[in-house]
Amino acid sequence: MKNLSLKNIDLIPSPIVLKKRCQSIAVLEAIICQEWEYRYYSYNKNWDKEAACCQMRNGSGDEMLILFQQNGAIINGFIHESPVQDKGKITQNLPNEFHEFMFTEPVKSIGTTFCIWNIPSNSKWTSGIHLDNTLHEVVCRDSESLLQLLDGNPETFHQWAMEYYELVSLNLNAIQAIYQHAPITNSLINQLTSQGIDFKTLKEDLNEIGYSYIL
Question: Mind listing the pLDDT tens digit for each residue in 53-66?
């Protein structure tokens, strides 16, 4: 089975579908892990004027930001141990509409080891990386490690969350429901965690993500 990566860039879905996947994962983590700083994924529907952003951090120095705006979407990935950090090469042919995002904060401080973008006039994801075969394989492998949870398969998240959060059990049906963007209810929450929930904080998280709930 092929995995999401620069090598299989055609597997990355449209920005609309990708946005929903990012929201679902952010919601699941908001329920499973109430401490924001320990989550992998977060999502802010009002990250900037008319733009939303998904952030992924693995706690080991690797990060990914996905910007969603009216004129397209762009993914900035950073693997701290990657030998490929020539931003000039990585951003070759980058459309002007993404320059502000890629060359200002916070991307400027985070760093860039790969980036891919999608604009409405093209509809396909594009990479600016043109490297020799060895380095290209490295970048593809690195991108896979950051993109793996965005394959749209609830079982991928289930397996990852069980290991990352050291859970004894996790209800796959509840994960599937949130992947389908079912509104968050007390029943769904109880299927995902036995811990007491701070509903005020959770509602704030859900409002920031832009996800519906009935609580």
Answer: 999 998 888 999 99
The count of residues in the chain is 215
Measure the CA–CA gap between 22 and 18, rounded to whole angstroms.
6
Domains in the chain: boundaries: 9-151
Q: Is the whole model's pTM more than 0.90, yes or no? A: yes
Residues 118, 125 contacting (CB under 8 angstroms):
yes
Q: Of 73, 195, 192, whose CA–CA distance to 126 is shortest?
A: 73
Identify whether the C-beta of residue 192 lies closer than 8 Å to the C-beta of residue 161. Answer: no
What percentage of the chain reaches a pLDDT higher than 70?
94
Dihedral of alpha carbons 178, 181, 187, 193, sign: positive
Asked if 32 contacts 166 with a C-beta cutoff of 8 angstroms, the reply is no
Nearest Cα neighbor of 53 from 42, 62, 40 is 42
> Comparing 144 with 104, which gets the higher pLDDT?
104
